[in-house]
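Weekly puzzle thread! Below is a chain. First person to post its structure in token form gets bragging rights.
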Amino acid sequence: MRLDEFIEEFERDEEAERRHLAREKSYEITNHLEDVERQFEQVVQGDSLFGSTAPEIFVGRSNYPDVSTGLLSPMEQEADPTQFATSEKWYQQGLAIDDVLQRRTGLLNSTRSTEVNVEDVWDGFVGVQREVAIADSPVDVEVGLDSTPNLDLSLDDISTPTGPRARATDATLAENPSVPRAVEKTLEDDDWAAEGAMTYLYRRGFDVYDINTILSAGALGQGRNRRLVPTRWSITAVDDTVGQYLRGSLQNASSIDEVQVYYNEYIGNEYWVVLAPGNWEFELVELKAPGSIWNPNPEGDYYLAADYEGYEGRTGYVEETAGAYHASRLGVLEHLEDIDRQATCLVIRHASDAYWAPVGVWQIREGVRHAFKSEPATAETFHDAIATLAPQLPVSLSALRRKSNLVAGIQSRLGDF
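Winning reply:
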């Protein structure tokens, strides 16, 4: 799928409903937001100059192509800025939902409105933002702020939550950023398509977290096409592009020779990853519990969503599982690349009612990535693997078969191995 296919509005907006549920579930977060308000008032007093070290940027999607673009920087002057940036380290540190929300609400989002076309823009507020995005470590910045804060908590199913926002009047770099040579190379080549540049950076050891920030700042792609990419879109675009690259590299690989079942659980989400012998096929089935953030009615039924691709991949947008699909697929493909094998893969995600506030698809990516850190259970056939899983799942096997391409067609697709 081309990058420009992501530049469109998609999915229903239930932010207000999610935010209400999050506040109901955690009085601690509500109290924390009150502390943030007091901290914000100490930092921003009238026409104030806010100095901090910015580890991340944020680009909104409302009113595209005129968007809100921001620098994210800790309000606590002594804080380690690297702890606030979304990364695989959050999983390794075992952060809970409360921990994630507290870290993100500690970041001030200094915003300006701008047009997304930034081909030659390296000065002013947007220029500073782009310099922060391409640097290899957090950058000291000074930002002029006005006196009108917005302390609402912004929750999103794909991007990480953001906290208080203030309109920025200007921004200045307080140091010269260090830019990795690989990033400089992509910037210097005005004929390099964004997809190729993303793949190049990934092969050079950049994780998707770094790449989606660089893409979001409009620092990848052919010169005439460079533009800011909303953070929500850039996350999915990078997961999809890197996933397509890995899938292509495995098309001539041998198949695994036995069925393997992996399991992991993280912050209210359970993941079962079933790999079976055969050519590449992939499906994500999501089971969303009543009373969870995506299925708020506690008296309702489980909500099932699924998306699938065959050996040649997908040609259209992922309708039901959106960013979760690309994040989980990437985790599977990285494992298959590590073992130089291909497989037919089913990922089942159970979002329980313990997942009371969305923290972004990074937790799905890391949940699937780390499922492969444990030894798999084995089964003689894919059918046996699904039957073994059935008692552990919160829905019936017949309901799963009705929703799933892979489970429903398992005998005709794979037979018995």
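Puzzle host: Confirmed. Bonus trivia for everyone else. Residues 231-249 form the longest helix (19 residues).
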